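Table S2 (text version). Query chain:
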Amino acid sequence: MLDFTPIARKVMSRRVRAAGTWCGRDGIEAAQRKVLRYLTTRGAGTEYGRSAGIVAGDDYAAFASAVPVAGYPAIRPWVMRMVAGERDILWPGVCHRFAQSSGTSDGKSKYIPVTDDSLRLNHYRGAGDAVAHYLHNYPDSRMFSGKGFILGGSFANELSLPAGVRVGDLSANLIDDINPLVNLFRVPGKKVALMADWTEKVPALVKESLHADVTNISGVPSWFRTVIKEVIKAAGAENIHDVWPNLEVFFHGGISMEPYRSEYAALTAPGKMRYVETYNASEGFFAVQDLPEPGAMLLILDAGVFYEFMPLDECDEAMPAHAVPAWEVEEGRTYALVISAANGLWRYPIGDTVKILSASPLRIAIAGRTRHYINAFGEEVMVYNTDAALTAACRATGARAADYTVAPVFAEGGRRGRHQWLIEWSKAPEDMSAFEEELDKALQRENSDYQAKRAGGIFLDRLTVDSVRPGTFDAWLASTGKLGGQRKVPRLSNDRHLVEAILALCNQ
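Corresponding structure-token output:
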């Protein structure tokens, strides 16, 4: 296959240059105000726009004063009208695609509109930006000399959908609507990519990719690990580069890569794999890793999304909230992310928290979910704390974790409370007690509140680890109907419902 990388690099370089205009606060403000003018001009004439008081071309102060912060329970009736085929509800026109996201407190699934404008302005542009920055950082790349392996999900089996409406994973919507020219540079074919039954899909993915010249892969680390292992097994190889010698980069997102780095190191040839983090959610493609070093992502400021940032103590969907625009964030602070976007979401808290690593240029790290944390004892432990601690403990002990979740064990019977970790291993530690000690110390280093509660063993006992058999987390996801390429286990819970459900599954 010819190497089209030089052509791609030249075409995509304009996106790198565009990002250069966002370096100062003035550039950030100019880019975001332009997006807001576009959004309000398009949204003012919708039913929601008229109801909420959206005025075409409104400045930020007037927009924030008039339009309420609205979580999914508040907009569900509007979205369901869109699903039913009504036009001009949250965004102009009729929306035929919806990304099915995890359920809300009432147990119902979320349907996130995927409009033609959001695909054009945001999702595909964000994916292009990830590639553009990668090609800029690595002049030796030949990623367009072969094929990209995109691991996606599937459409849901919804029996009551109107004709022409499709609901499923975001990745299924993206693959289904992708430019046909892109299919020349990717595997698997659309039929296999959109298969719903993962017990049939994984063997089909292996068959289609086994003899392909794969140069880049894109997907969720936990799911791609399973596919890579099966490809290696089918080829009788030592590592994935024995099968795909030209594989050079993994564009990953959905969950943190940190707990999986040691395992990917074992699955790949030394020095041959690069990793690029992306922030691509059902609600939008928000940020890309623009530097070779991992850990920070550049917010995409001109791609159909207007961002606001809400201090964590004000992120409850049910209460009025004070939010600040992108040009007013404070470096080092953690916020709940609020968006207005070309998919018809207006001042919508997406449920993620982000830490501002740099205010200018605006680089972030995903801190966790607003509802996925542990604060049962005043410790305020976030997902990025547990990811980092687990990575450190595995590195110190030579263990490799495949998946995990954590919940509190509340004080009873004279015992102090503690954290209980359920971990599925790729390589279990030889001494579990030593591992628990390493993990506890690492978490104390990552989180000063946890360290304070652990001091002297007065308030909290040392954490404990329960090993679960291989396949447990996949079995739990399957039991919830959420097994698939974009589904993932919640890392942290502030109660014991999830942990008890998984333990019950282990005992069956």
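Notes on Table S2: The radius of gyration is 23 Å. The chain has 17 helices and 18 strands.
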